[in-house]
Amino acid sequence: MAETRAGFVALIGEPNAGKSTLLNQMVGAKVSIVTHKVQTTRARIRGIAMEGAAQIVFVDTPGLFRPRRRLDRAMVAAAWGGAADADIVVLLVEAHRGLTEGVKGIIEALRDKLPAATRVALAINKIDRVKAEELLGLSQTMNEAYAFERTFMISAEKGYGVQDLKEWLAAELPEGPWFYPEDQIADLPMRMIAAEVTREKLTLRLHEELPYQLTVETERWEERKDGSARIDQIVYVARDGHKGIVLGNRGETIKAVGKAAREELTEFLGRPVHLFLNVKVRPNWLEESERYSEMGLEFRDGD
């Protein structure tokens, strides 16, 4: 029997680089929020993938960007914390955007914020959007900017090249026992996964700014005798006007969000789910340490 391997892999990159999509593709199930909006991943979500005798524990970090608010600062601190703790770091770069100012900033931070011995690989994502010669040029430019251990050409959405990256990571992780049972795909509590599902549906439904001004918490989880689960969640918003937007005309928006979240949770859990959403106004929720704990972030990192 092959020696077992296990280790942590941090996926880093600019917002919307495709980290959550790649994580879900690697794990083979949806464990991280995926939307067209940037900066939607908040907590460091650990997705767990098996490849042969290796267990790869992925840390899907928040996108790295220039922080403005306390929440932004806490997210960026979580991202670098996840990278510093990892056995291998994978930097995701969008093929059609290339070496942006944001990516240059991340490369500088790789030198400053990570231990010198940290192994870093490059994954050029969304390769289906550019021509082959452009990819080769970008690969050369990126490797001149930083000494990456390996470079992979992938499409996280379509799955191209993902298996090659997964197999390389599995082979490079340290030998040792697995951290989690073989059939476990995430180490987030189900209460937090359920809250993330609902927040994703809200993010997809609402317009630009509001999704970053709300958060979702699972207040109550009741296992019923018939095998179903009752889940009560609170959607916290910062202003009265936001509450009206979340509720929608005659409650249509929150009903649609609840239906979509309930259907996804039912499929994820493999049993019926009764989901109840309540919208509350908390003007200062962005300054409350409890809210950060619920998101798996450190409140003090926002200082």
TrEMBL record:
Ranges where the record places region G2: 39-43
> What protein am I looking at?
GTPase Era
Q: Which UniProt keywords apply?
A: Cell membrane, Cytoplasm, GTP-binding, Membrane, Nucleotide-binding, Ribosome biogenesis, RNA-binding, rRNA-binding
GTP-binding as a keyword of this entry, yes or no, is: yes
Q: Which organism is it from?
A: Albidovulum sediminicola
Region G5, annotated ranges: 154-156
Q: Where does it localize?
A: Cytoplasm; Cell membrane
Q: What is the lineage of its organism?
A: Bacteria, Pseudomonadati, Pseudomonadota, Alphaproteobacteria, Rhodobacterales
Q: Which residues bind GTP?
A: 13-20, 60-64, 125-128
Residue ranges of the KH type-2 domain? 206-283
Report the membrane topology from the UniProt record: Peripheral membrane protein
Subunit and partners = Monomer.
